[in-house]
Design goal:
The complex is a heterotrimer. By secondary structure, chain A is of the alpha/beta class. Chain A has five helices and five strands, in the order βαβαβαβαβα. In chain C, strands 1, 2, 3, 4, 5 and 6 form a six-stranded antiparallel β-sheet that branches. Chain C has a five-stranded mixed β-sheet with strand order 12-14-15-17-16, covered by helices on one side. The relative contact order of chain C is 0.06.
Chain lengths: 123, 240, 575
């Protein structure tokens, strides 16, 4: 997984920071933020290959961010993270162009597998 | 407006009683979940605490008790899986109040039900398992009241638990015939004699409840002496 | 239209009533109102008719009894007049057939008289009187030969009128008689008078033949009111009659009078011309009164029986009607109750589900933390680990605490579902419910502003139901606002017995029409979504507790729900 760059967006700070650390340990360049707006800035500054996005977020919601990413950077693959109340959003997200969605909590191995899949099927 | 239920006194009373029971049932099951979740959390806490202790001793201790740390982490992982499962079930259970009358896939329902009541059976040291379907491809669905169905099955299991010794087994299975579906709750283990078994079951006050509830669902309930169990007959579709 | 208005008001008074009235009263009042209305509507016309009939019958009954009498009277009058005419014609016949010369012969006259008496009866005497008024010949019991009648008024009358019929006088053997005199002219132009006396037995016969009942009386009186026949009750012949006929030729006349004995009587006067008699029939009113009373009591009996029957039927009918209404009401209440319960379970379910969702996040965190520890354990230099590890285990413990708090909330909630009444802090309850909606508020950027009164007095109420109430109102508020809007919750002590909680949103507001109907069952502005029962059920719960809910809204500005609760809630039927 060389030169693999991803951006993590989730409103739970502890979660997103820890996950980022774990991914970093595995050699994946990860930037993490709890804010959707800021995430877009990060993406603009240095576009990653994959963005992992929580759908349930205050402010600029997950789906909004997804739309904006897909509009500007269609090649970036987006993987959605959903909790119980948002399977519906997950499916909507798929229609909006997300690569796939996963239920929290995720097992890191599965996540990495999904990331690899996403990269393989990058448009 | 308050109305004296002078025309349907039994109906009014019955409704009130059942409403209380339903709420109690909900409360009981929900409380069960939270207890389990608490257990999960307790284990996580302890595991974490243990690691903390080890780390606090000295940096070398980490290496020395490496396996303990690994074990703790594994335990935490497993408990997380368990916790997620629990909240999943809790969620599903909570949503069973969404629709009053709904289409219910019985095999799936029974599976979920067993997950729900596993704890209570375990407390009595009885295992709760499903009987595999005779025709696994054919799904048996009925239209009924989800919460009351849960209550019915739960009460049936309670009846059995009352008369079973520890170490036994309760099997829940399905049988479909003509217009009725039969849910069998069969006890296995060191059971008393048939006559005593019947007596124990019908004497418990839960039996009365079970009869009322199955009537409310448009069905009926019987004791199956030879199989040592209770059979709940349900119509394909519940009437108004 | 004015009459429509008052009619509506009347209908309202009879058929509707205060919604707060409790059930037995409600139906009792309805029953009473309908019964009274129906009784008035049926009995008043019936009574009206009965009273009219009463008077009509009285009149027609009177006539029924009177008319035959009038007819009888007339008939009798004709018979009487016929009799006298006939007697008169006999005398005229004799006078025409026999000459003056024949009649002046005593033997002839006696012969004629004998035959007259034998063949026709009633003739008492027969006499010939010359133009000077002297009795020439006489056949009869009296000694009248040679008597001079020149000065007598009847003689004068005969000369003028040609005919004379006398009043009754006491005659031979003290029996009443009348005299008939006829004037004739001979061929020479000389006038002579034939006079005869007739006994009045015929009069009595005629009266008897009227066939009157024993209590009635009939008699003849002359122009001066002297009895010409015996009266059963009022006097003998030639006595004065206490009844006076009207003057003039009146044909037949009926009067209601009081007789000398003080009894009320009906008198029928029939005027006879030749002679000037009056036939009087006296019938005591009590006779016709008897049949009238019989009819009256019959009528009364029927009237009373009808009234009783009507009242019985009305009562029975209204009973059935109201019972049907009551039954329908109860059925509806039961159905409503079921829906209410359904909604309650549903809201409980939602809260529980909310909890399940929430726990997810901290569990995810624990997962990552523990995972990271594992990673580090595999990858990092030993000496770097301790501090890092400590941080991580700390985080884990924090998340565990968080989970605990959440599950604790759920457990408390589950436990309390059965408790009916307890003393609770309203502020705390509202915040607890808000806690369940926290996530959504954060997610949608809804500002929750709390203006909860310090020292808000505790109230005694049903926790579960209050949770249901506030959850419902808050959910509506959340649905009404856009992301970024504000919801303000205020609590205060309204008065000695009441506390108030208001939930104000800065949403779109509602038109007046919606506000008016907002607590109506099945009223919903959300097409296809929701049952429209949330607010009615909420309203019902609060009302049953003895509280109140008021809604105000302004389009474009927002809506405010104000919930007023008794500090001591009414002990309801508990759910």
């Amino acid at each position: 997984m060389k030169n693999l760059k991803i951006v993590l967006v989730d409103d739970e700070k502890e979660f997103v920071m820890t996950l980022a650390e774990r991914l970093q340990l595995r050699g994946i360049q990860t930037r993490a933020t709890t804010d959707g707006e800021y995430a877009l800035q990060l993406i603009e500054a240095d576009p990653p290959q994959v963005v992992i996005l929580d759908v349930m977020m205050p402010g600029l919601g997950g789906l909004e961010v997804l739309k904006l990413i897909k509009a500007q950077y269609p090649q970036i693959q987006v993987i959605l993270l959903t909790g119980y109340g948002s399977t519906k959003e997950g499916i909507t997200g798929m229609h909006l162009g997300a690569f796939d969605y996963m239920m929290k909590p995720v097992s890191i191995e599965e996540l990495i597998e999904k990331i690899e899949e996403a990269i393989d099927s990058q448009p | 407006m308050t109305v004296n239920h002078s025309f349907f006194p039994e109906q009014g009373e019955r409704m009130k009683r059942w409403e209380e029971k339903e709420v109690k049932f909900f409360g009981k099951i929900t409380a069960g979940f939270t207890h389990e979740l608490k257990n999960v959390l307790a284990i996580i806490r302890e595991s974490s605490g243990l690691m903390e202790d080890i780390i606090s001793i000295s940096p070398e201790a980490i290496i020395l008790y490496q396996d303990k740390i690994q074990k703790s982490l594994d335990r935490i992982k497993n408990q997380i899986i368990r916790g997620v499962e629990l909240t999943d079930r809790l969620n599903r259970f909570a949503h069973s109040t969404d629709e009053n009358i709904a289409k219910i896939d019985l095999p799936e329902f029974i599976e979920q039900f067993i997950a729900l009541s596993q704890r209570f059976a375990r407390l009595k040291n009885v295992a709760l398992i499903t009987v595999p379907a005779e025709q696994p491809d054919q799904s048996i669905t009925i239209v009924s009241r989800l919460i009351q169905l849960q209550m019915a099955l739960y009460t049936g299991v309670e009846c059995c638990l009352n008369t079973m010794p520890a170490g036994g087994e309760i099997r829940i299975g399905l049988k479909q015939s003509k217009e009725k579906v039969a849910v069998q709750v069969l006890c296995k283990g060191d059971l008393p004699e048939e006559s005593e078994f019947i007596h124990n079951i019908s004497a418990s006050e839960k039996w009365q409840d079970l009869q009322e509830i199955s009537a409310g669902l448009g069905g009926s309930v019987e004791v199956d002496e030879s199989a040592h169990g209770i059979v709940l007959f349900l119509p394909d579709e519940i009437g108004p | 239209m004015d009459d429509k208005k008052w009619f509506n008001r009347l209908a309202e008074v009879v058929f509707r009533f205060n919604d707060e009235e409790t059930s037995p009263d409600r139906y009792r009042i309805l029953r009473r109102n309908i019964v009274v209305l129906m009784i008035l509507v049926t009995i008043i016309p019936l009574t009206f008719m009965a009273v009219i009939n009463h008077y009509q019958y009285k009149e027609s009954l009177k006539n029924e009894i009177i008319n035959p009498l009038l007819v009888l009277s007339n008939k009798t009058k004709h018979s009487f007049e016929l009799f006298l005419k006939e007697r008169l014609s006999k005398v005229k016949f004799i006078a025409s057939v026999y000459s003056y010369k024949d009649l002046s012969d005593e033997k002839n006259l006696s012969h004629i008289f004998r035959i007259l008496k034998k063949e026709f009866g009633g003739f008492v005497d027969l006499g010939l009187i010359d133009s000077n008024g002297v009795q020439i010949t006489y056949a009869g019991p009296y000694d009248l030969l040679g008597k001079d009648y020149k000065e007598q008024s009847w003689f004068q009358e005969v000369l003028v009128r040609g005919v004379y019929i006398s009043d009754v006088f006491m005659g031979y053997r003290k029996f009443p008689h009348i005299a008939i005199a006829v004037q004739f002219f001979s061929q020479e132009g000389v006038s002579w008078i034939l006079r005869t006396t007739i006994d009045t037995k015929f009069f009595d016969d005629l009266i008897v033949s009227m066939g009157l009942d024993l209590e009635s009386d009939a008699f003849l009186i002359n122009y001066d009111g002297i009895f010409q026949t015996h009266s059963k009750f009022y006097g003998k012949v030639l006595e004065r009659c206490p009844f006076l006929p009207p003057r003039g030729n009146y044909g037949t006349f009926m009067a209601e009078e009081t007789d000398p004995g003080g009894n009320k009587v009906i008198t029928i006067y029939t005027h006879l011309t030749k002679p000037e008699y009056t036939l009087v029939i006296v019938k005591p009113r009590s006779l016709f009164l008897k049949s009238w009373l019989a009819l009256k009591s019959e009528m009364f009996f029927i009237f009373s029986a009808s009234v009783i029957l009507i009242i019985l039927i009305i009562f029975k009918l209204v009973d059935v009607l109201v019972k049907n209404i009551q039954e329908a009401d109860e059925k509806r209440e039961l159905a409503f109750q079921e829906m209410k319960h359904s909604q309650k379970l549903s809201s409980i379910g939602r809260l529980a589900a909310g909890v399940a969702h929430e726990i997810n996040n901290p569990l995810a965190i624990i997962n990552e933390k523990a995972g990271l520890m594992k990673d580090l354990a595999d990858h990092t230099e030993e000496f770097q680990k301790s501090e890092k590890f400590l941080d991580l285990t700390d985080s884990i413990l924090q998340s565990v605490e968080r989970c605990k708090a959440i599950t604790h909330r759920l457990l408390g909630f589950a436990r309390r579902m059965e408790v009916q009444f307890e003393i609770l802090d309203l502020n705390e309850l509202v915040q607890e419910v808000l806690g369940f909606l926290d996530k959504e508020a954060i997610y949608r950027n809804i500002e929750l502003r709390l203006q909860l009164a310090d020292n808000l007095p505790r109230i005694s109420s049903d926790r579960g139901q209050l949770q249901q109430v506030f959850l419902n109102i808050l959910t509506n508020a959340f649905a009404a606002v856009e992301d970024g809007d504000r919801i303000t919750i205020t609590s205060w002590e309204e008065d000695l017995d009441t506390v108030g909680v208001s939930i104000q949103d800065s949403g779109t507001g509602m038109p007046e029409e919606t506000v008016k109907n907002i607590f109506e069952p099945f009223f919903t502005t959300k097409r296809g979504e929701g049952t429209g029962l949330g607010l009615p059920i909420t309203y019902g719960i609060v009302k049953k507790m003895g509280g109140d809910i008021k809604v105000t809204s302004k389009e474009g500005e927002g809506t405010t729900f104000r919930v007023y609760l008794q500090k001591k809630s009414k002990a309801g039927s508990g759910e």
